[in-house]
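The records we work with from here on pair a chain with its fold. The integers have meaning only within a learned vocabulary of local backbone shapes. A complete example follows; check for yourself that the lines match position by position.

:::
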Amino acid sequence: MKYTFFVCDAAADQELMSVLENVSVGKKPELTYTTRPSYFAYLAEVSVDSLVIGVRSPEGELVGFGTVSVQERMWRGKKIRVGYLEHLRLRGEHRGQGLLSQAFTHLKQEKGRLRVDFFYTSLVAGNKQAEAILTRERKDYPRLTPMSEVETKLFVPRARRASLQVKRDRKAGINYVKKNCAEMDFFPTGLTEKNLDWFVAYRRNTVVGACAVWNQQSSKQVNIVNWGFPLTLLIRAFNLKAAITKSPKLPLRGELPIAFLTQVVVENTAVFEDLLATVETEYRCKVPFLIAGFATSDPLLKAFGARRCITYKSKLYKAEWEPTQTEVPKTLYPEVALL
């Protein structure tokens, strides 16, 4: 008997969530993801279309899967559809069987139904084993071309003072982002209308920047398996201080309550700093961590210089079976809430 590959539907929902929850990623910290109450409900939240390829063992058990979630993003002033290769998971005891190559063969056969301009994926920086496997040239493997390096910042929200007037305004935030994101390559337009908590910065009654906070806990959960050394010691110290100040604590294990900073469109870094200060003040008693991420070439990263952050680095790759000559822009807007 052989391993069998197939396109998953809602009937495999619980099995997909079981594999996702029990196969960890990263080392410091080591994480797992869950998508309670439904994996397909999560995909509907973050994409406009999707394709899930599953693999069953000779005994009929679902032992791995990979997903393509289709996103709408800006590219060279136009809205395009891109496919994100995500949640590549395989139970450890079934590795070394050549299943990844077979999975890519199956995906290559099915990818036409998605109608995307190109595919992309992300890898944790320093994961040399995964990078070596995915970047080698093999039959039916997509060719990976580096697109951008990304820095994700996890930071504790604190009360801060903003110079500009910043207030919650969903309509003004959406309008400003739609008007000003056209030249922001890889900006995810598909998120704009979602149920986000919008913040807008004003200078003399004129909007000069907007961003939103996206709490995904109702559809996607991040779980700590092990923080690793020395983060475990830092988390213990943080929780002692949190107990004194009656602030939210961080779990040593289990679900990590977090919210993402998303849809950031601003006039300059100073405006972003004021938006960030207001978001932190509003969320300091709601979540122990906020997450924001940008391409390493993005000047907005300077806003985190004075903040104590846990930095999580990753790389984006363009994935193509039939390579094109499309030049990758210098600065991308990757949106870590979708990675």
